[in-house]
Amino acid sequence: MNEYGLRSSDLFRTCFRKSPDTVLFAPGRVNLIGEHIDYNGGRVMPCSLSLGTYAAAARRNDGVIRLVSVDMGGAVVETTSEELASLPCVPLSFARFGWAEYPLGVAAKLIENGFYVGGFDMAVCGSLPRGSGLSSSASLEVLTCAVLKELFFIRLTGEQAALISLAAERDCAGVNCGIMDQFICAKGRKDHAVLLDTHTLSNEYLPFDLKDSQLLIMNTKKPRRLAGSKYNERRAECEEALRLIVASGMDRKHLCELTHEEFASVEALLPETLRRRARHAVTENERTLNAAEALKTGDIVTLGKLMNASHDSLKNDYEVTGRELDSIVYAARDQEGVLGARMTGAGFGGCAIAIVEKDAAESVKAGVTERYKAQTGLNCEIYIAETGEAPFGKG
Ligand code: ADP
Ligand code: MG
């Protein structure tokens, strides 16, 4: 067990004065390409990370639930399974639990879906930066599913765990996100990316082999303040664009069902802003399919170019990048040995990624850090991404 797993069990022992029954891990994730289209029925291509969240946990027989996190100051949040069963799954009922709205939302959703969840104690410790677009929230939700599955012998598939986690994030925490994060945090595998169809959930594991290159995660350290409101605005714009397209006689359930050619035949019907939003959805979906092909054939140069094009579309058509993400992405692209760079996650801050030749990684890190600091005044953090195993990855 690594340092973070040990810290979760140390906190468990200190708080609850007994040993945990189990210590489990769920990864965070990075999306390689296919951004802002998981709510448009598009294809996405994320991978699970070795960074993630650990929990030490034990079952109780009195229905009491106690939660504590190393990362949240160590105050214990307490409730009961009975109370959870009676709470309506809406943000208003869960807000008072603070960070614990995520794990308690998962427990409540399991109960709502007819699974038995009794009392338990759980201590959490994360190795991911939180609120930075690497999906610490989905990691914590999926981790809770894995813990409760083990403690209460729940028969739960990875797909069910992802859907329960998504329902908790949407209904209990009030974040109207797509299925990608919870799916990959539940079902990702080490050394693999997943090509996921977010409409049907059909998926394909692709060996994540960048040949002589590696993936850098570049954290802008800019909080994603706008992300929530703009995210909802973009979703609404996409829904409106789809409504206009359907009203014109083209029957589609999602924007990403349209091919390039079909979009060309209807785009003139859309007001300028909606046209650009829809164009991003359609072109990003195609880029993701091409990127999967490039990864399969080991064509990392093409993968890098598609990542560049993805960022440019997110900047110009979708308008979700912002000064810091653009600055760090362009700083990376200007370094020797960088094959491609783009923002990842919701945007307006958080993280970007770059594919970098292994030999150049150190000089790229130094070059990006210096230029980003000069342009924004912020100190970025850059990590070499390693893939990690998710709790439901093997079944
Ligand atoms: P992201 O998912 O991109 O990291 P979010 O804002 O969606 O950002 O989720 C971050 C929130 O998830 C935190 O503010 C906290 O409430 C919860 N969270 C994530 N990791 C932990 C942790 N290790 N301990 C306690 N809460 C956590
Ligand atoms: Mg999140």
Would you give an account of this structure?
The protein is α+β, with helices and mostly antiparallel strands and 395 residues long. The protein has 2 domains: 3-207, Ribosomal Protein S5, domain 2 (2-Layer Sandwich); 213-384, Alpha-Beta Plaits (2-Layer Sandwich), CATH 3.30.70.890. 44% of the residues lie in helices and 20% in strands. It contains 13 helices and 12 strands. The chain has helices spanning 3-16, 81-86, 91-94, 101-112, 136-151, 158-172, 180-187, 227-247, 260-266, 272-297, 300-316, 323-333, 361-376, and strands at residues 22-31, 43-44, 46-60, 64-69, 77-80, 119-126, 192-197, 203-207, 213-219, 338-343, 351-357, 381-384. The chain has a 5-stranded mixed sheet. A hairpin with a 5-residue loop joins strand 7 (192-197) and strand 8. Helix 5 crosses helix 6 and helix 8 (227-247) packs across helix 10. The longest helix is centred in the last third of the chain and has 26 residues, at 272-297. The two termini are 22 Å apart. The structure holds adenosine-5'-diphosphate and magnesium ion (MG). The site of magnesium ion has 3 residues, from helix 5.
